[in-house]
Amino acid sequence: MNTQTIKAQCPEAPERVERLAGVIRGDASALRGCVDADPAFADAAQAHGVHGLVTQAVRANELWHLVLPETRAALNSHLRHTALSDRYFRRQTIRAVTALREAGIPILAFKGEAIACTHYPRPHLRPRCDTDLLVAKRDASAAARVLEALGYRPVNMVAREVVHTQQVFSEIDGAMRHVIDLHWGVSNRPLFAGVFAFDELARNAVEIGDHAPGLQTPDPVHALLLACLHRVTHHENSVRLVWLYDIALLAGGLSDKEWEQVRRIAFRKALCGVCATGIEMAASFFRCSPRTFSQVATLHALGRKHDEPSLAYLGARRGPLRRILLDARHTGSLPRTIQLLASHAFPDAAYMRRTYGARNPLSLARSYAYRAARGVRRLVP
Fold first, then answer.
1. Of 17, 77, 152, 228, which cross-links 275 as Cys (Cβ 3.0–4.6 Å)?
2. What is the rounded (10 degree) CA torsion for 301, 305, 306, 309?
3. Could you report the per-residue pLDDT of 298-334, keeping only the tens digit for each?
4. Could you tell me the pTM of the whole model?
């Protein structure tokens, strides 16, 4: 991945991102730079979700005592908060999953929570703000009822049936808040929503292990594909380091047979470009084996065999209007396209009442007018 590409995806501070990655890789020059780094360096590490990895690397290289006290304090504070959240999140996740399984609902954990437990040396080194759980669409309503019975409440969201494949639930326990993102599709983007069905992912699911007994997650091949997909479809091809480190860990643990499966599935699902780009960017920041780099070239070559629609999502960030138009292009029919666009412009009344406190027809009309004006300001550069 060349410097120009990195700058296109991370225009705010590519040098800082490279420096953080260098510390995690264990590069001597980057580690020496930590000694004189100010607290803003710790805040950047936290923003990229790698403060735990940075702290671990500095300590492993016996430089911790040389780091400025303010920077040490900032890193310690970030890591302490993540460790507390990790214990609470896993306890609540196991509680929710146990209840879902007792109700006879098959469930998979994926994304951050699962990868933290399966690929990081200690789960708290991989921060996350929610727990992503996947169920079959046929079980979504029953799963929602189980979570509400446990005390979780649905978070206010726009109802978009064309792309509605998840519902966020929140439970507050004193000063702690646990969020469960209940999915019945792997993406809210119409092009990708059905690319992996629950039954397909559950077929070869694996146990997470001691960190979350009884909880299953997609096998490493599908976990890598989902990690690459998530970075593009939910985060606009972002260069946030924690997502790239996830990909590096997942890719680095695959066998030759598993890489063959990655290539075959990515080609069948028309995701070669999405996967190649994510793996290439991860490999550019973190040490990867020569085999991983060779897989990038193979995936790019496979992707060139047919014009993958998913490639349209790989460009630099171009704002909400472009994302809406891309989604509209792949809804599958004109009525669904109209429904999608209408849901952006005119969300359901229940959402508007909860969000804006509209209590009568006049205040509801004012809320729609306010939202429309704000939307125009966001969409027009």
1. 228
2. 0
3. 898 888 877 788 877 776 555 666 677 677 676 666 6
4. 0.85
